Amino acid sequence: MKRWGALALAGLALVGLTGCGGDPFQAGDGSGGALVVGSADFTESELVMEIYAEALRGTGAEVDTKPRIGARETYVNAVRQGELSVMPDYTGNLLQYVDGNDPATSSQDVYDALRRKLPPGLEVLEQAPAEDSDVLTVTRRTADSGIRTLADLGPRCGEFALGAPAEWKSRWEQRIAEEYGCTFREIRNLEAGTVTVDALVGDTVQVANLFTTSSQIDANDLVPLEDPRDMFPAQHVVPLVGAGTLAPPQAAAVDRASRALTTERLTELNRRLEVDKANPADLAKEFVAGL
Q1: How far apart are CA 236 and CA 195, in angstroms?
Q2: What range defines the domain where residue 158 resides?
Q3: What CATH number does the domain containing 170 carry?
Q4: Are residues 161 and 98 in the same domain?
Q5: Measured in whole angstroms, how far is the alpha carbon of residue 40 from the centre of its chain?
Q6: Last residue of a domain, which of 168, 197, 224?
Q7: Under a CB-based contact definition with an 8 Å cutoff, are residues 209 and 193 in contact?
Q8: 249 and 185, same structural domain?
């Protein structure tokens, strides 16, 4: 997954930051100047950054953007220190960052746990309906053979090869065996995105790990498999903010934008970014103008 790298480094980051000068979550006052909205180092995060920024400008606020910051351990600390005012993130990954042992997986449980466990100086606003989470995907032909859910897949996993990023095996191989009785014939390490889709469409693999907002799912008539036991934790888009950084009307404007951001809308916006080569700032203006 495109955000696995930040998660994998989280524990080391906490140790490293502490060693470099005290509490890695030491709060800043966040006072003065323009609001600053950041993004992680991938396109969808940059798009959501622009949506938050445009929503805030609608309140009359002066807003700067700081795209492509990098890994979670960097931007979480920047929000805490007041260098960033708002940062788009994902509920499941952010919860694992602050508490890697939390067992929550469902949407509300993850969000509630995240709100409880964020360190002082950090808050999240409303989570969006939009999710960008792992999803196992098959071709229409495979789905029509009776596989629509991971429960359907489980007894037949031995027939299939899975294409997934290298991290998948260590993170999910045992879990899917426990939850669904699934042991794949083979797991092939494939780069996320087009490479994995091409392998699935070409029948080099019969199951592929993709992400729920990938425009390539609809473009290639692929079928996402339902996960009835919530093996994959919820990953709703959520604004991470510095505590007390936003005035109530500003927070309300971001919440309003979040409520309108569904998985379907985000998938279509991603398609326009990837296929039509649209500009993220232009898409954000269009999105916010339609609220």
Answers
A1: 25
A2: 134-224
A3: 3.40.190.120
A4: no
A5: 10
A6: 224
A7: no
A8: no
H/E element holding 109? helix 107-117
Query: Do 38 and 139 belong to one domain?
Result: no
CB atoms inside a 10 Å sphere around CB 208: 28
Identify whether residues 112 and 199 lie together within a single domain. Answer: no
Average pLDDT estimate for 89-118 = 96
The stretch 167-196 carries a mean pLDDT of: 94
The strand pairing partners of 26, in sequence order, are none
Residue 13 is predicted with a pLDDT of 36
Record the pTM: 0.83
Instruction: Note the pLDDT of residue 20.
Output: 36
Number of domains in the chain: 2
Listing DSSP states for 54-72 in one string gives HHHHTTT--EEEE-----H
Tell the residue number behind the tokens 């964020």, with chain if given. Answer: 118
**Amino acid in the structure at residue 62:** E
3-class SS string, 111-143: HHHHHHHCCCCEEECCCCCCECCEEEEEEHHHH
Does residue 34 sit in the same domain as residue 118? Answer: yes
**Residue 220 tokens, joined:** 């290639």
168 and 195 in a single domain? The answer is: yes
Q: Which amino acid is at 115?
A: R
87 beta partners = 240
Q: Which two tokens stand for residue 125?
A: 């606003």
Residue 33: how many other CB atoms lie within 10 Å: 10
Residue found under tokens 């042992």:
101
Beta-bridge partners for 209: 136
Asked if the structure places residue 143 within a domain, the reply is yes
Please tell me whether residues 240 and 105 are part of one structural domain: yes
Helices 91-98 and 107-117 meet at what angle, rounded to 10? 40
